[in-house]
Every structure is written in C-alpha cells, then in structure tokens.
Amino acid sequence: MKQLITPVNIAFFLWGLVLVTIAQLHPEYTRYFLYLSIIVIIPVTVINMIKMKREDKRNRTMLFSASIYRMLFMAILLGFVFFMTKLNPM
Question: Which of 13, 45, 52, 78 is 20 to 30 A from 4 (CA-CA)?
Fold first, then answer.
C-alpha cells in the first residue's frame, strides 16, 4: 500500500479532481487546464525516468525498460483508439 500512496500519486489524483471541477463549473477553461497539465506532466515524467534509470544502474533492475515498454504500449493503444474514432464518427 505504501507504494501506491505516494506524494506524486496524490498530486495527480488532486489534479484530476481539479480537472473535473473545472469541467463542471467552467467548461470554457477545460482546454487551457489540459494544456497546463501537459506542460506540468512532461517534466515530472522526465525526472521520474531519470531517477528510474539511475536506480536501474545502481541496483541492476529493469524498472526503466519496463516503464518505457508500458508507455510505448499506451501510445499505440491511444493511437489505435484515435484512428478508430476518426474512421467511425458518430
């Protein structure tokens, strides 16, 4: 349980709650909040990846490569969903 409840996960959870609140109260600002989310999340992800790579070198683990494979899988899945929605508009 300690691995799941980390400051970063709590911050992302609260960020999501703020997103839902903004989307409900002021839908015209949702796009700008999502732009801000991208600007904030990319550096956090890069810093996390650098820490994982250092830990992999120190402990000879495979956390970094597993995380890269997860991100690659999610990118392919998101691309697939994107093209499916573009090909079959409702």
Answer: 78
Query: What mean pLDDT comes out for the span 76-89?
Result: 87
Q: How many Cβ atoms are within 10 Å of 15's Cβ, its own excluded? A: 14
pLDDT tens for 20-72 read 999 999 999 999 999 999 998 899 888 988 988 998 889 988 888 888 899 89
Distance CA 4, CA 31 (A): 29
Number of domains in the chain: 1
Q: What is the pLDDT of residue 77?
A: 96
In whole angstroms, what separates CA 84 from the centre of its chain? 22
Q: Where are the alpha helices (DSSP H) in the chain?
A: 7-25, 30-59, 63-87
Is 30 part of any domain?
yes
Does residue 34 lie within any of the structural domains?
yes
